[in-house]
Amino acid sequence: MKKTIFSLAFALLTLASCSNDDGDSLEIPTVGETLEAGIGGANQPNQVYLDLSTAQSSVVNRASWDFGFSTGAEFRVIINGSVKMAVKKLETSDITLIQVEDEGVNVSYNTLVSSGYVDNPTGVLDGAEVGQGTAIDEISEIDLENKVYLVNLGFEVSTATPDVGGVSVDGTSRGWKKVRILRNGNGYKIQYADLTSTTYTEKTITKDADFNFTFFSLNTAKTVSVEPEKNKWDLNFTTFTNYLGTILYGYSDFIVSNRLGGTKVYQVLVAGDVTYEAFTKVNIVETNFDASSLDQRIIGANWRNGGSQSTLPSIKTDRFYVVKDAAGNYYKIKFLAMTNEVGVRGYTTFEYAILN
Q: Could you tell me how many helices (H) and strands (E) the chain has, helices first?
């Protein structure tokens, strides 16, 4: 994972000190630092993880991983929704059996939420009903109960150039695999193969409590670095598989919060004396954070207009967001642009400040 620092768009206006969990003094803007997320343009190749307390980001190519193995007490596995992966549970526990592609297992306007092919976009891992929790059932300690999954690996990052204001995120197909996941003590075993193969590869996955997930790539047959440590990021800029009513829908320019790591967020609508500039710590309503404990999509795509055939995408200027990190620091954040100076998407800029 390449470590980068967000590029400064204008000079820091005012600095103030606050303390993190380690007691280190952090220099955080109180009036406004404007930053640009390194999403990478209209193909949006990058997932960007922002730590508000340091104004630093971690950037990873969104096609570099396939599965995330929960490091908590549960045995849950997520799929990479940023490349539109989808999975279907089969009736067998025998991964040596030949399988065939099922073109209905995908992310599209024609795929129903009730199919259960993707993870619940709230980020809540638990849930036994179809469309709740992870698309892959919780991994059982009884091996025979762990079924084989037909896996549509989604799409490579596109290299096509869209019209100005548009995006091109889906490249060529990443293909199909069959996958079975078992427990291995307090960790996991993953078995995977091509659909027509009668043999399989098996790898062990360990839990690391410093992270929300341990990530694995079928392409490299190794664990890979994706998210920073769970207490070192707050917001993730990414493409995203979401629920839109009863169907699945792929979003660009999406932002999720680090719900599992303890980050909380709520939206504030501008009205009368309620403005971003005038908002201070005394204006915070703690109960407004409650919804973000159960949903990572509070910012989501709510900060921008997607555009249409006759209008370019744009930000919504009637709102801003309040963020509380795991260390108890409060920030306000407003979005300034989602395109660069010539209208190309994938250049999100925003201003944020700590609330003392």
A: 0, 26
